[in-house]
Amino acid sequence: MTGFDAPSAIYLYIDKKMQDHGLFQAICRVNRLDGEDKEYGYIIDYKDLFKSLEGAIGDYTGGALEGYDRADVAGLLENRLEKGRERLEEAREAVKALCEPVAPPKDTGAYLHYFCAADTLDQAALKDNEPKRIALYKAVSALVRAFANLANEMPDAGYRNTEIEAIRQEVDHYEKVRHEVKLGSGDYVDMKVFEPAMRHLLDTYLQAEDSEVISAFDDLGLVELIVEQGLGALDKLPKGIRDNPEAMAETIEHNVRKLIIDEQPVNPKYYEKMSQLLDALIQERKAQALAYQEYLKKLVELSGKVKKPTATTAYPTSLNTPARRALYDNLDYNEALAVKIDTAVRYTKKDDWRGNRFKEREVENAIREELGEYAMKTPEIFELVKNQREY
């Protein structure tokens, strides 16, 4: 295995004499990027070979890589503190640019309106604003990593004490914005796999006070937490949301809306009805037709219906699976036909049938045959079947 084939590494500890090919290949290995979390590698030079490193690059371009310009390997080695400061400043500017359009006073509500939806009745806004949220999450994560890389050496990087504290508060502010937007939009569950490493950086270089609040959402999304714990779950939301009744209401509405959107393909008719109920509830809130606590109770009740359809809807006993219930809801509540199609699909489908044109055609034909006089609904029902997790 050559140095170019070897796995990527983040740190290179030089504790012995190295030169020429071996030295150059070791540098390439630690500089190789293999994911978003690695921005560059570190070289810890116990043998004071830094001057030799520059020589190794020169010798290598004149030896095994003869014919390559020096420009081909320019930038292989850079001053870590200079590069760290450059990246931190770039990350700060990137986050500020993303948040610049947020309306004054740039509080929790303003950020939720800009990155989620200005009006929770707008069913398309949450999805349409998803690219802005993803850009925010990535930019703030890059800012936190850039700050963490320099946090213990900022004076050496040229920052004054007042600048260091201002930057720390800035990073803390934008991390809280990121977290509130993720919770407010319902994106937290989708991205929580990335949270442990980020949590470690925040606890180490910013502050750990909020870790207990955030941990409430480690295993459950907001809607799931509400279904399990009722109104008590809302006490676990960040203070910026919790202390703002409108932000609290919009956060729950966005989370319920996102769940409806995500589950819509599994049972279009049922979740269309849930969407209508949510719209009606939002309109009541906007018209101030309900006291705030009464509104929250109704929202909790709706969350249960969205998350657990069987807990609030009485289905015939033969409809004992989610797929059968979805077919029933989308076949004008025809119990016998729903059972027949479910049986036909289970009998016909083969392993890995989705995405295989011939296997899909067999399932579609079986559905068409069972539909009989409703054959015109075959494409709709076939798509519904494809979206069922149990098939």
TrEMBL record:
Keyword annotations of the record: Endonuclease, Hydrolase, Nuclease, Restriction system
Coiled-coil segments: none
GO molecular function: endonuclease activity
Listed InterPro entries: HsdR_RecA-like_helicase_dom_2, P-loop_NTPase, Type-I_R_enzyme_R_subunit
Pfam families: T1R_D3-like
Every Restriction endonuclease type I HsdR second RecA-like helicase domain range: 1-48
PANTHER family, A to Z: TYPE I RESTRICTION ENZYME HINDI ENDONUCLEASE SUBUNIT, TYPE I SITE-SPECIFIC DEOXYRIBONUCLEASE PROTEIN SUBUNIT M AND R
Protein name: Type I restriction endonuclease subunit R
Gene source species: Nitrosococcus wardiae
Lineage: Bacteria, Pseudomonadati, Pseudomonadota, Gammaproteobacteria, Chromatiales
